[in-house]
Specification:
It contains ten helices and ten strands. With 247 residues, the chain is α+β, with helices and mostly antiparallel strands. The model has no long low-confidence stretch (mean pLDDT 94).
């Protein structure tokens, strides 16, 4: 039906069709989540960030679908894998892109704090652990920066003319930049632990914040992410939830 499959994810398949990318969601996927993803994408377009433009939301064979511009290029993740000697250069660029995102405001995005509160309540943690995490969350400074929510090198496309495009805004919220950095740090720890600590050092230097400030978000972010993913990911995240503080 379409030109080719670009990727398969949990509950969705991503196709290329000419100059379009079509995300087709499983029949069981929430209509509200599909529409929220499309709305996030449209709102982020208005910030001026380099992202694929949304074209339409439709139904294909009874399944919800989102059609976007196709961006020719390779992921930053692929470049990092192919050119390990350029790791530092790629991490610097990766963090610069994240800082550009965090410099934006988008007042109608959902609030990161509300999302995390909801996710913590959805975990199977005991009442004491939930109370401790919510207390920690309540003490964090309130911010309204655009947070990607799943910022990792596979969500950056580098075009042949060396422009960077940012993909996948389904988890976008507005909130604290350090929470977004904590999420990226955990993603690196899961996928390629060798990049994680250096990423965080570069982020803190570029964003002019202390390492401890980001680290204080790790148990909260880990808990909010632990309600999804496979058993290995949940076990990994549980270890970070159990961290009380950092020296």
């Amino acid at each position: 039906m379409f030109e080719k499959v670009l990727a398969q994810r949990a509950h969705k398949t991503i196709y290329k069709d000419g100059d379009s990318v079509i995300k087709v969601f499983d029949e069981c996927y929430s209509k509200a989540n599909v529409l929220n993803e499309a709305l996030n994408q449209a709102r982020i377009e208005e910030t001026g960030l380099n992202i694929p433009k949304i074209r339409e939301v439709s139904k294909i064979d009874g399944k919800w679908a989102i059609t976007l511009d196709y961006i020719e290029g390779v992921t930053l993740a692929s470049l990092m894998e192919q050119n390990p000697d350029k790791t530092e250069e790629y991490l610097e660029r990766f963090v610069s892109i994240q800082c550009e995102i965090l410099s934006k405001k988008c007042r109608y995005l959902n609030k990161l704090r509300d999302k995390m509160t909801s996710k913590i309540e959805m975990t199977d943690l005991d009442a004491t652990a939930k109370y401790d995490l919510n207390t920690r969350l309540a003490a964090m400074p309130r911010r309204n920066k655009v947070c990607h929510g799943d910022f990792n090198p596979s969500n950056i496309i580098i075009t042949p003319d060396d422009r960077a495009y940012i993909l996948d805004w389904s988890h976008a919220t507005q909130g604290n930049a350090s929470a977004d950095a904590a999420r990226t740090y955990l993603l690196f720890r899961l996928a390629n632990a060798g990049y994680a600590d250096r990423y965080l050092e570069i982020f803190c230097a570029k964003h002019n914040i202390s390492l401890k400030y980001v680290q204080n978000w790790l148990p909260i972010v880990a808990a909010s992410q632990s309600v999804k993913g496979n058993a290995h990911e949940r076990e990994f995240l549980q270890r970070w939830i159990d961290v009380v503080d950092y020296d």
